[in-house]
Amino acid sequence: MKRYVLTLTAYKFLDIGIVVGSTSHRNCDQRQSKYNPASCMEGVHREADIERLMQSTVPSSSSSIQDLNVELVKVCDTKNVKLSLYDTCLYMKSITVLFLFKLEQCTEHVYYKLSQYTHGVSEKFKYFVSFLKQNCITNKRDAANTLHKIYDKNSIIECELCGL
């Protein structure tokens, strides 16, 4: 099983795997982690507030996003962002936090591409299974060797399927 993160905050991901048995099939599930997506999305929507916080000259300025506390702190005379959730905290430079917001803009594009690839994976998997059946290949090692010989090395989908 391979896991592909679909969002900046990693609360949505895609699991792709191949189930081999009497009837082989591909398994592709979109899932959500235990993170609270509402909190994650609120953070993304409050990007401007967080940017203003990072430009603040007032030490220990803070903002909250549900249970997450975002605080501007000084560490070794450098402004850092302290993210606190319950008993856990993470320190980042302001520029890193701003960069993460820029990545969120790419998420929708990547999600759309992954949706297209999911259909392609299904079609390629059907092709691989039918090729193995037509050639009466039932031994797992022989099947793996055969697929590695016939797959299109320029197709990211086929490369990933052979890598599973």
Please explain how this structure is put together:
- The protein has five helices and seven strands, in the order E-E-E-H-H-E-E-E-E-H-H-H.
- The model has no long low-confidence stretch (mean pLDDT 69).
- It has a four-stranded antiparallel β-sheet. A three-stranded antiparallel β-sheet has the order 1-2-3, with helices on one face.
- The chain is an alpha+beta fold.
- The chain has helices at residues 37-45, 47-55, 94-134, 140-150, 156-163, and strands at 2-5, 12-19, 25-32, 62-65, 68-75, 78-85, 88-93.
- Helix content is 48%, strand content 28%.
Summed up, what is this model?
This protein is α+β, with helices and mostly antiparallel strands and 164 residues long. The protein has helices spanning 37-45, 47-55, 94-134, 140-150, 156-163, and strands at 2-5, 12-19, 25-32, 62-65, 68-75, 78-85, 88-93. Helix content is 48%, strand content 28%.
- Overall radius of gyration: 22 Å
- The class by helix and strand makeup works out as alpha+beta
Taking the sheet with the most strands, its summary is: 4 strands, antiparallel
Distance between the termini: 7 Å
Extended strand count: 7
> Topology as H/E string?
EEEHHEEEEHHH
What is the total domain count?
1
Extract low-pLDDT stretches.
Answer: none
How are the SSEs ordered, and which strands pair?
Blueprint: E1 2-5, E2 12-19, E3 25-32, H1 37-45, H2 47-55, E4 62-65, E5 68-75, E6 78-85, E7 88-93, H3 94-134, H4 140-150, H5 156-163
Antiparallel strand pairs: 1-2, 2-3, 4-5, 5-6, 6-7
Structure keywords:
single chain; 164 residues; alpha+beta; four-stranded antiparallel sheet; three-stranded antiparallel sheet; 5 helices; 7 strands; elongated
